[in-house]
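Reading a protein record of the kind used here takes only a little practice. The record below shows the convention in full.

——
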Amino acid sequence: MFSNPFARLLEFFSGKRENPVFLAMGDSIVSDCYPGPGCGVAALVQRGLEPVIRHGVTRTGYMLPDLEAQLPHLLGSAHCRAGLLSVGGNDLLALDSPPEDGWYQDFERRYGALRQRLQALYPGSRWLVCNLYDPSDGTGQFPGREERGFPPRPALVEALARLNGVIARVAGEDLVDIHTHCFGHGWSRRLPLWFQMDIEPNREGARQMAELMLRKLAPRS
């Protein structure tokens, strides 16, 4: 693998090409943890891009600092077919109260810097930058929390909408709007349920999100 611009330039002109890469970094929205092995969003997108070599780590509970911590370990590639990023939900859930303006500003600055570093490591890649879905379908209500005696969290819905605005600015044209795509498939039960354990994707939810991403990557006719 080649991890600096000079080495990638030599590789390009030498005619010796590495296997293409798929980069995936993110939280349980895209990991296999809840849908099951090989059934998470990142795994399904990877399957649609095969043959590729996987870079990056997806794991339940990951927040922005966990993605930043991966940077020194990424090898980079001049032949990355796609890069998938999903982060922000756990950062929001970890707070005891709705975030202040400075929190959003800091998140935007750091996520933007992460994007720039990744674009330098994987030049020419297509990107899939996910916003955040709302399993409560706009209500702030989750059956599991209510069963445990916790009240609804309507303020979380407002904070999520604001954070999605931040993510949209960072992503630009690379945004994957899973919020709109999944809305109505949450705990309102208006449509087939795509979630489990309050906030985690089930297999159908993961499949639906992966198909959305693969359509975005498909060549335009």
